[in-house]
Backbone:
């Protein structure tokens, strides 16, 4: 139902997008022409002009300072300027009042929408639909570029396995494969087929690298990453985005094994440019070059600029290290002019690729690109498919709209907060909350009593009114969660339960005896052990954006069957983090557990069994990676292989029959997992290698088929070499990482 409709809408967006924006004639310069243009420019540029191109500053409007710096050739890029008239005026300064007429590139954090806000990236990952991520990014590019923003700092493809880290909101979860697929989709969406066309933005794959491994889930913190972990888990999404043509990369704030990313030659020169053959432009993170002084690897800005230039960071965001120090470094012979020329070349190449030399200005006469009906429709469907049904004892769907609904809780009418982190440009009055939507859906049968007005509120005095109203309702819809400001950059939490008095409010609602549907809108996994018992159903929506309200209404009534699956594990309690499905077996895997309340008093030391689990949390998360329920049920056959054996350069296909065994149409995510049984290094017990979301009518069976090339079974050894080792591999296809069915065995042999 909904899925087919989405495809139709996607088509519409593509066509409408092109006609509304108008295209430039197909005259994009060839690579050779671009390089020749750069050579010509470089030969005319003074060292000051070169260094100016490497400087990125945050906008201050059409201010005297900006005008002065642009005219002096000291600015290559401006971030955070989103007014089209101002952008044009600043650009005119660069084009008309500088010697070489080099355009400025304007950038912005357009992370999950510009005006039309889509679910936060982790929510987009929960759709398991790369086509939705691509479409959302395309719409973001269309909206943002219409005011002159041609460069976004997205996608973030940092693997995140620690839900305390606030930036878990901005990425695609814990798994390298899923993150790679979604990252590539975002790059394609932003950039389209031809970056020089209007309506596109350069993508910026970030943060290179390892940022998600911050110790303790605390932002900006240290990371320790042995090479095999870096290579197998953290680098693959970056490689995928580089190979998909991501025009730019951003470094990260953290150090890896003591080397801050801004000084990491290995990452930028050896891996990104050397091994992957990428020729885009690298920008630092905000002041990350200067922060190497705090890291304690640079004595001063001079030193920091020296390290960053040698590492291959082309543009300095807001640290004033290059603009203030690079010239001196060149005259002292510490940084060669060849290095500077290469950096400038990378910046100019980006500007040529974007067609900025030919079309530097925003066409302010075009109709508005914001909130187009098809954009809102795409945001709605993405929000619907990102919602994950975690539990349901049959209370959902509500079906009959005549049911008397009490809507309560701090996220029920949170115009600001349901948009989540990084939604600088959203407009509150354009956001449709559950309250706004339910008024239409349930009409007179809706009662709204907030109970708590914001998520951290501890004062329970408003809850009595909600409890009282519950007496007259058939069902309670409790909108819980986290405010936007509790996740995202620099917003980490050591306790990831529902903040404030929300759980206590839920207890009081439960005491009414009325069925409760808890809906959680948050920026990260939330621990819900008690809430899952108190609720008759739980729907989890990572901050869903502009259309969150209607999306929820459609799901509650059953107009839309939920189909989101988790892109990250949900721990029972915070002490389990980092927790992820792709763990090693260890030498002492757990089959049976004796939990804390079962241990007899004065039991012997070894009586609980000496295996790997927590006495108070067991072994598993509350909800595992890949998990998500539907209003229907699905059955998976045992996987079938096209051959039982393949060579180390071969390929097999894996097939599985999926049947909708329930009474309504629904979509499920078939997931392919593998395990290398015996290898020279201990390997994870499961690794995702493919997925497909399919929609099935009641009773329908469909065969899903995955291609599994031997190259997908490779891993990095201790010598930093990628190897495919012969031996047995177990293969599962299931709708979560629990992999309940029997595995097929594939034998890999030397070619
Ligand atoms: C710092 C953040 O780490 C990065 O993700 C963002 O793109 C820049 N600031 C620019 O705002």
Residues:
């Amino acid at each position: 139902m909904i899925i087919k409709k989405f495809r139709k809408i996607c088509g519409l967006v593509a066509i409408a997008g092109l006609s509304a924006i108008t295209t430039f004639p197909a005259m994009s310069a060839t690579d050779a022409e671009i390089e020749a243009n750069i050579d010509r420019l470089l030969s005319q540029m003074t060292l000051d002009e070169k260094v100016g191109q490497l400087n990125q500053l945050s906008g201050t409007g059409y201010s005297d300072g900006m005008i002065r710096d642009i005219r002096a050739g000291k600015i290559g890029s401006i971030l955070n300027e989103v007014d089209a008239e101002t952008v044009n005026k600043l650009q005119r300064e660069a084009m008309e009042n500088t010697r070489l007429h080099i355009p400025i590139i304007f950038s912005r954090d357009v992370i999950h929408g510009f005006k039309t806000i889509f679910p936060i990236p982790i929510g987009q990952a929960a759709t398991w639909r790369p086509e939705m991520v691509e479409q959302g990014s395309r719409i973001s590019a269309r909206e943002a570029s219409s005011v002159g923003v041609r460069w976004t700092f997205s996608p973030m493809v940092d693997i995140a396995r620690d839900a305390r880290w606030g930036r878990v909101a901005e990425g695609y979860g814990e798994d390298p494969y899923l993150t790679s697929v979604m990252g590539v989709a975002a790059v394609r969406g932003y950039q389209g087929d031809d970056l020089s066309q209007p309506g596109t933005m350069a993508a910026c794959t970030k943060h290179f690298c390892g940022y998600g491994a911050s110790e303790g889930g605390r932002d900006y913190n240290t990371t320790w990453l042995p090479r095999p972990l870096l290579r197998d888990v953290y680098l693959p999404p970056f490689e995928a985005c580089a190979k998909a043509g991501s025009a730019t990369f951003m470094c990260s704030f953290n150090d890896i094994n003591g080397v801050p990313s801004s000084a990491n030659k290995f990452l930028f020169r050896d891996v990104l440019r050397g091994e992957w053959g990428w020729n885009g432009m690298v920008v630092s993170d905000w002041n990350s070059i200067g922060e190497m002084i705090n890291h304690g690897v640079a004595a001063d800005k001079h030193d920091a600029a020296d390290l960053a230039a040698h590492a291959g960071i082309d543009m300095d965001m807001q640290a004033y290290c290059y603009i203030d120090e690079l010239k001196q470094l060149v005259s002292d012979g510490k940084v060669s002019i060849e290095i500077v020329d290469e950096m400038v070349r990378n910046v100019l190449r980006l500007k040529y690729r974007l067609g900025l030399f030919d079309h530097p200005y925003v066409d302010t006469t075009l109709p508005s690109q914001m909130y187009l009906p098809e954009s809102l429709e795409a945001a709605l469907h993405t929000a619907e498919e990102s919602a994950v049904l975690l539990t349901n004892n049959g209370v959902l769907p509500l079906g009959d709209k005549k049911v008397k609904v009490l809507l309560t809780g701090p996220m029920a009418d949170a115009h600001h907060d349901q948009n989540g982190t990084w939604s600088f440009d959203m407009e509150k009055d354009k956001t449709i909350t559950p309250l706004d939507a339910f008024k239409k859906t349930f009409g007179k049968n809706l009662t709204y009593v907030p109970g708590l007005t914001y998520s951290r509120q501890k004062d329970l005095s408003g809850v009595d009114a909600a409890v009282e109203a519950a007496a007259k309702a058939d069902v309670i819809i409790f909108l819980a969660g986290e405010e936007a400001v509790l996740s995202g950059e620099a917003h980490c939490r050591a306790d990831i339960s529902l903040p404030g008095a929300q759980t206590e409010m839920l207890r009081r609602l439960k005491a009414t005896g009325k069925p409760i549907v808890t809906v959680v809108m948050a920026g990260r996994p939330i621990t819900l052990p008690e809430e899952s018992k108190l609720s008759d159903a739980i729907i989890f929506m990572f901050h869903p954006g502009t259309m969150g309200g209607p999306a929820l209404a459609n799901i509650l009534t059953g107009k839309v069957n939920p189909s989101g699956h988790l892109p990250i594990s949900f721990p029972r309690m915070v002490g389990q983090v980092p927790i992820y499905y792709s763990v090693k077996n260890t030498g002492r895997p757990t089959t049976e557990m004796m939990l804390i309340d079962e241990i007899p008093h004065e039991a012997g030391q070894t009586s609980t069994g000496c295996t790997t689990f927590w006495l108070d949390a067991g072994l598993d998360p509350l909800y595992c990676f890949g998990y998500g329920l539907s209003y229907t049920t699905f059955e998976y056959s045992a996987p079938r292989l096209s051959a039982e054996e393949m060579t180390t350069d071969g390929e097999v296909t894996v097939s599985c029959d999926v049947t909708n065994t329930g009474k309504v149409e629904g979509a499920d995510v078939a997931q392919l997992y593998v395990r290398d049984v015996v290898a020279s290094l201990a390997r994870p017990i499961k690794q995702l290698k493919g997925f497909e979301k399919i929609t099935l009518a009641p009773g329908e069976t469909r065969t899903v088929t995955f291609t599994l090339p031997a190259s997908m079974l490779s891993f990095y050894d201790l010598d930093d070499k990628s190897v495919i080792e012969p031996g047995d591999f177990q293969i599962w296809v299931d709708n979560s990482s629990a992999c309940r069915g029997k595995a097929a065995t594939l034998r890999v042999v030397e070619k």
